[in-house]
Specification:
This protein is mainly alpha-helical. It contains 21 helices and no strands.
Length: about 500
């Protein structure tokens, strides 16, 4: 069972969370004021890429806090509690997510994005693959459906946590979570989300460090703690509860395929210069190291305090309410909220940019002027936030299916077509389309146990292999990409007439 707290402690938690909420509102309003000064013809570019002028700390947090969602703060420690050190071995693979994203595609995408004026993740695929309509439509539907579902899941988890820690209603928690994202994303665009992410990253870091230190202080000597944990369940103190094959597949999932997630790769469109990108790699690794190490270890130690917790994902809130003074427990709630809202804010920008740039401007109204695009950008971002809020009140049954396959399916679909498209000239639209569809379908069949193809690993490994095989073989069997595209993506000089398209 979890830990019960008094009414006065809940009041202190609510006050701390309220201060955090006011800080977020202030950031949103300041970002709106900044965006209001932007010229109409530059508004969309500023809204989605920040004018490609983001500094190191902002870019570092956009990747680190954008990818470290409720999973890092709730699900990861929950696995540390339930399966122990075997998850510690696997979970540490995510420490290098900033290095993976910028190391795999950062410099190349930064150059090409400026050449083609890319303002969305899908813009990269449309440009590289000859404006192929199937790839464009597939990418639009995949991003909007699967990321939209994932955002709903984040909101639902955050609102339930708010309800359990404050004693206030689920609906109020949902309104606060959705409202803060609306204020930062719809009013300030990527700049609002980025400013909020830096603030949230600081809150996350402070709360994690305080929770870790005070948990160790509360428990006392680790020798005694681990003797007690071993007496409860000795399997949680060995790193080999999972097989080596499954461990390997988890390293693939958490250490390799981040660029297949649109909200992870979006930061590569925004950094100011190479120097900022390099600094962002180092900063991001350090932040994620602190969060991952402290949270997973704290979760595994939680066995000594709560040996029979019914829901392992509740271990961090339970420990926070037991070992921290109420105002610091409130800071932990704010840290979890920050982890969720930073991820959701990034995803909302991705969904909005995909709709405005790749659906509205490319297919619905290609002749829309700057004033019209500005209006559609703001209205669509607000509409996306409202739609997600409505779905979160009573999530539809089909939603769970999409949530289950969202991250793995997107990674399986986009990883190889993006990576090969950047480094292998021969990759064409036919191979990319086959790799996208084949990777996503294989992942759904394997992860859903519709076909026994996972071979004791996470299904993403087999899905990535199928995607790679299809992308390469179909590309080799079909015509080469047009020369103009090769020059833009690989050449020192590139045709201006193609650039203008």
């Amino acid at each position: 069972m979890g830990y019960e707290i008094s009414a006065s402690s809940r009041t202190a938690i609510i006050i701390t969370f309220a201060i955090y909420t006011l800080g977020m509102i202030a950031i949103g309003l300041y970002s709106k004021k900044t965006m209001d000064k932007t010229a109409v013809d530059k508004y969309v570019d500023e809204f989605y890429t920040g004018g490609r002028g983001m500094g190191a700390i902002v870019v570092a947090m956009m990747v680190a806090a954008g990818l470290c969602s409720a999973g890092t703060f709730l699900g990861g420690p929950g696995l540390g509690y339930s399966v122990g050190l075997t998850w510690v071995l696997a979970g540490f693979s995510q420490i290098f997510m900033n290095f993976t994203v910028f190391g795999e595609i950062g410099k190349k995408v930064g150059i090409v994005a400026r050449r083609i004026n890319a303002q969305s993740y899908v813009d990269l695929f449309v440009s590289r693959y000859n404006s192929n309509k199937f790839i464009g439509v597939f990418a639009i539907l995949a991003v909007m459906m699967f990321l939209g579902s994932y955002v709903v899941a984040q909101f639902v988890g955050g609102a339930r946590l708010f309800e359990s820690m404050t004693g206030l209603s689920y609906t109020l928690g949902l309104v606060l979570f959705a409202g803060l994202v609306l204020v930062t994303a719809a009013l300030g665009g990527i700049k609002g989300v980025a400013a909020a992410i830096v603030f949230q990253g600081i809150i996350m870091t402070v709360s994690v460090i305080m929770l870790f230190i005070l948990t160790l202080s509360h428990l006392g000597p680790l020798t005694s703690v681990y003797k007690e944990i071993i007496s409860i369940d000795p399997s949680v103190v060995t790193p080999w509860t999972w097989s080596p094959m499954y461990q390997f597949s988890m390293w693939i999932v958490y250490g390799l395929v981040w660029i297949g997630l649109p909200h992870g790769a979006m930061a590569t469109l925004t950094y100011k210069d190479t120097k900022s990108m390099h600094k962002a790699i180092i900063m991001g690794v350090l932040f994620v190291l602190v969060w991952t190490l402290a949270l997973i270890w704290t979760g595994s130690l939680g066995r000594a305090m709560f040996p029979d917790l019914e829901v392992p994902d509740q271990i961090i809130p339970s420990i926070a309410m037991k070992v921290l003074p109420p105002w610091l427990a409130g800071l932990t709630l704010a840290g979890v909220a920050g982890a969720i809202q930073s991820t959701v804010g990034s995803m909302v920008i991705i969904i909005s940019s995909t709709f405005v740039k790749n659906a509205y401007q490319s297919m619905i109204n290609p002749k829309a002027d700057s004033k019209k695009l500005k209006k559609v950008t703001v209205m669509s971002t607000v509409a996306i936030c409202i739609a997600i809020f409505i779905l979160s009140i009573n999530p539809p049954n089909a939603l769970q299916f999409m949530i289950t396959f969202a991250v793995g399916g997107l990674g399986s679909a986009f990883f190889w077509p993006l990576l090969l498209g950047i480094y292998w000239k021969r990759t064409n639209e036919y191979g990319a389309a086959a790799g996208m569809v084949g990777g996503m379908v294989t992942y759904i069949l394997g992860a859903g146990n519709y076909l026994p193809i996972a071979m004791g690993m996470n299904a993403v490994v087999v899905a990535l292999f199928v995607s790679l095989l299809l992308t390469v073989s179909i590309s080799l069997a079909t015509p080469k990409p047009p020369k103009g595209i090769i020059m833009i993506w690989f050449g020192k000089y590139y045709p201006k007439e193609v650039l203008s398209k």
